[in-house]
Amino acid sequence: MNTKDHVRTVVDSHRDALIDLSHRIHANPEVGFEEEKASAWIAELLEQASFEVRKSVADLPTAFSARAGNGSLHIAVCAEYDALPGIGHACGHNVIAAASTGAAIAMAVVADELDLTVTLLGTPAEENGGGKVIMIEAGLFDGVHAAMMVHPNEFDDVAVRASLAITNFHVRYTGRAVHASSYPDKGVNAADALIVAQVAIGLMRQQMQLADRVHGITTSAGDAPNIIPETATATYYVRAGSMTRLAELEEKVRNCLDAGALATGCDIEISPGSPICACLDPDRDIADLYRANAEALGRTFGSDRLDPRIGASTDMGNVTQLLPAIHPTIRIDAGGAVNHQRAFADAAVSESADRAIVDAAVAMAWTVADLAVDETQRARLLNGERRPSLHTT
User: Fold this and answer.
1) Which residue from 317, 377, 345 is spatially nearest to 85, judged by alpha carbons?
2) What is the pLDDT of residue 393?
3) 326: β partners
């Protein structure tokens, strides 16, 4: 039996366990940094497969590192397993967790044959906490030569070309409370400050670039209609097509927020949110290998599929900036629903999603096998050489 046949047999033999893992995670949604059940279930499967598991790495209770093999080429597979507040696994991270687990287990079986070290990194809080950024800073990606993961979506593609850099922050206006009818002139309205800022941001959109995004929510704006609101708070996300543009746009947004404070006489406090996430910069060679392997499994890749206005963000972008890595998407049949819709959460435990788990696991493991046996690819990864980005034309 050749290596790729062996890998596929291993994934197939774990199929039921992987699908059960996906469905359990889906039925027990946990938001970022609270994924206690999901991380424990994944770690348990890996321990059963003879991985050495380290829990609570990077001082994150739900992050872990699981390693197998002692080869010279070190490959990391990233698992995500956090859910979205209120709508559960509407981004399909249960599928990611199961596929990455399957790929890691299959790679471990052939690690000695291919001179590999295989690490599965359990990376919490992709949605709202930048877990991978924290793990990068803690050294969890040190010594890794290449990394990968596969994300469910409504199409098969090797890269999200419109992936955006993102930063976020919390805003707090403080004014002066007073009876809204008897003494309105003695109050300073924090909710008005927020409204002024929102209007300024809305007007600014006309001058924004195509890839720019600004969106936020009001988290508090008063307690009763007959009290001038003393405080108002909001959380804002700012996204752009490059880190340079992100800094420019963030400054403009902060000026709009300051305008609200200036217009109303409120004090303003802006505090940082989760870590900044960079744009995806996928490795062209690894992406090409993944595509060929996925096509061999019956996956279909078109051309120019993505609307340039689409712009998600991910902390996997920081990984791709650090070392050769890929973040392809794999299609699940969601009946026209897209990520972060309730119907997509339903689709994440469908037969189509279960098939995607197996296909993604096999395609990733086959891609690692290709990298390991191709002398040119192996040498360039060991030497830390980067190929031009898949986004380079």
Assistant:
1) 345
2) 41
3) 148
